[in-house]
Amino acid sequence: MSELLDQLCIVMIQTSHPGNIGSAARAMKTMGIHDLRLVNPTRFNSPEVKALASGADDILANARLCSTLQEALADCHYVIGTSARSERSLRWPQMDARACGTWVAEHLPQQKIALVFGRERTGLTNEELEHCQALVHIPMAFDFFSLNIAAAIQIICYECMMAVRQSQTVQALSSTSDLDEEPATAAAMESFFTHLETTLIEVDYLDPENPRLLMRRLRRLFGRINPTQSEVNILRGMLSAFQGRKFTRRSNS
Ligand code: SAH
């Protein structure tokens, strides 16, 4: 996950309160995001920066100081601005923080993505917004309010981290059945279902005169599992044992 999040950078423009830079570094570090770029911060060498970073010193030490937004974004492929207000959405595609996380998780492998945060009092200028391809707004209970900038960074970094985690869990789950083994073919599954049905009739579990939806439900169950060929062989071996017969690979039809 960390390599993926290395492709994400946080850009803060003209931050005036040094404590906010420290808190932002801490917020990033807790979510595994390390690349901080500061465009003309008002005071970066204040002890407050380090005090509020609370252990995120590496992020501060590696933070890139830039004199223009263009310089901060030079190596980025996609730029997402942040806004405390939602009415700007008319000019830029807008997402909430969760959708932003999902978008970032989907695109990080191919591109470097920047999230740009504005000044504490006035946010981003229209000229700066021109550099953004999309805007993210964290919905709040009141439209006339705004979040502290480090809190906004925390929420958006959290959503990005969670979305990356989730996509990796989904990938891991969908690849568990191909642990070096071929999934069973449709033909092998059909033979298995025939064998299963015959066995269930033989042991009087399935009434052929009144089968109800049993086979359909069992097909759905095994369809979800997506077994490998050798797992199907085990299942068929078990069915043969219930029938008092021996199942060999040659009887696999
Ligand atoms: N009055 C300013 C408030 C800026 S708050 C304005 O309306 O733009 C400072 C920065 O914190 C913003 O530029 C943005 O980067 C971030 N921020 C604050 N609240 C946010 C929210 N609800 N959604 C997204 N970003 C937010």
Q: Would you summarize the structure shown here?
A:
The protein is an alpha/beta fold and 253 residues long.
Poorly predicted runs are none
Q: Roughly how many Å is the radius of gyration?
A: 28 Å
Instruction: Give the strand line-up of the largest sheet.
Output: 3-2-1-6-4-7-5
Main sheet characteristics? 7 strands, parallel
Overall 3D geometry?
elongated
Q: How would you classify the helix and strand content by structural class?
A: alpha/beta
Number of strands: 7
Structural overview:
The protein is an alpha/beta fold and 253 residues long. It is built from eleven helices and seven strands. It has a seven-stranded parallel β-sheet. α2 (18-30) links the parallel β1 and β2. α2 runs parallel beside α3, α2 (18-30) packs parallel to α8 and α6 packs across α8. It starts with a helix and ends in an 11-residue tail after the last helix. It binds S-adenosyl-L-homocysteine. The site of S-adenosyl-L-homocysteine (SAH) has 18 residues, from β7 and α8. S-adenosyl-L-homocysteine (SAH) is lined by residues 82-85, 117-118, 120, 122-124, 136-138, 140, 146-147, 149, 152.
Summarize the helices and strands and which ones pair or pack.
Blueprint: H1 2-5, E1 8-13, H2 18-30, E2 35-39, H3 47-53, H4 57-62, E3 64-66, H5 69-73, E4 78-82, E5 94-96, H6 97-107, E6 113-117, H7 126-129, E7 134-137, H8 149-174, H9 186-202, H10 214-225, H11 229-242
Parallel strand pairs: 1-2, 1-6, 2-3, 4-6, 4-7, 5-7
Helix pairs in contact: 2-3, 2-8, 6-8, 9-11
The site of S-adenosyl-L-homocysteine (SAH) has 18 residues, from β7 and α8.
